[in-house]
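Lecture 7, part B: from sequences to assemblies.

Below are the input chains for today's worked example.
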Amino acid sequence: MPKAFRPIGIFDSGIGGLTVARAISKRFPQHPLIYFGDTAHLPYGEKSPELIQHYAARITRELVDLGCGAIVIACNSASSNALKEVRSIAGASIPVIDVIQPVVEAVAQRFEGQSIGVIGTRATIDSGWYQRLLQERGCRVKAKATPLLASAIEEGFHAGKVSSTLIEAYLTKGAFDGIKALVLGCTHYPLISQEILSLLPEGVEVIDSADSVARALSDLSDDFAMGESDSQNPGLRRFIVSDLTRSFQLGAERFFGSPVILEERKLSGQA
Amino acid sequence: MPKAFRPIGIFDSGIGGLTVARAISKRFPQHPLIYFGDTAHLPYGEKSPELIQHYAARITRELVDLGCGAIVIACNSASSNALKEVRSIAGASIPVIDVIQPVVEAVAQRFEGQSIGVIGTRATIDSGWYQRLLQERGCRVKAKATPLLASAIEEGFHAGKVSSTLIEAYLTKGAFDGIKALVLGCTHYPLISQEILSLLPEGVEVIDSADSVARALSDLSDDFAMGESDSQNPGLRRFIVSDLTRSFQLGAERFFGSPVILEERKLSGQA
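Predicted structure of the full complex, as structure tokens:
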């Protein structure tokens, strides 16, 4: 199959990564996509690196078996803890895009030498991966785990008193004094980017990774670029979860921004 | 081994069930306990009944293999969705106490014919198990899923602005008008029972299940009662989790109310 028509495989621990799938499907409307949300094991954000690596490896195997031509790790906890494992299973012929390096690249270009804030799950922040990459690119970094935000958003608490109280609890007390930009290091957070912005000092930018990730796919090869233009014939999109509940079905649409039908597929050896 | 000295096996999806373990260890200070928190798969509250049954069955097998003489399901999501599976694996010789029937019994005796509120995870409330049991005992029931509460408490948000905003968001708008008592249908909630009480109309009682469950163990047999009295020789207590992180270690103490050392043990076939 020509590479351009092999599906882009996108995975996350749950449905938050649909914000990334949305940006990708907007940029590559003709390109087939397979989204895999590991809802049987979500959230990854509180799990140990070893367990995240184990889950991410298994999903990668599944996406490879499904014929994917590229893999996007649409989950910061997995990107920061399991990139090596995913790459090793994908092999040399299947490119892997994580959700962290493209945004670090974009941020570093604009904010070199300046102070950048990062928020994310505990697994993401504790890995130190954002901190290391941004520091290597000459940024100063203030990172903070904001573990309840993802579940709050998943529960539909955004643009309201609960989310604003929570954001305030996490962002205040000087944790991010002096930053020029705040990176949303979790694929759930774009849904509350406006609320976050309104609680930060004027002039601080809020940066999410979805567009940078979609752009990184474009840069991969001309094959992918082929899928970019014409939206007359939208590519086939499959949305798979490892455990299907009504609430995931309801939530999926909020994250993807248009109707989504989830199908359930147990991972081989899932337990 | 005499039954009285076989450990009581207690399990939950995470560390919330330590509130039940605490009540049990207070009542049976001499009795050995094995607590199993399935942190690799938490939270159960958002998972499908089938997956909860699968996890609960596997932990039960583990506790039976570890020689437990009784099993306590210290998790409402598992009690309401997997009691049959746990009983079937425990067999006739190992009694199983769930966290719902004892509290329903206690509530029904005091509030027959009256209106009772229940809050819990989505898996617990969607199962309809509390509603059915309380209605069979002549109570009227108002049940509501409050899915974010458990993770908020696990993150240390209690007795503060975040938890009170969240409780208010869940409990107001007349959801529980006219109730005489509110059952805390999740083993995390005892940590915020005072906050919940302060937001309910005067006279409404807040009821948690920990003491009823400990009492139910007493009623099981004289063997168990043997362990009740003398606290001179505290029984051996083991606290096992299927995925160990620093935050679980820190949280465990809050739920158990005294120092806890967690050990990690992968479940056989865990994936």
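Note for the exam: The longest helix of chain A spans residues 49-65. Keep this in mind when comparing with the next example.
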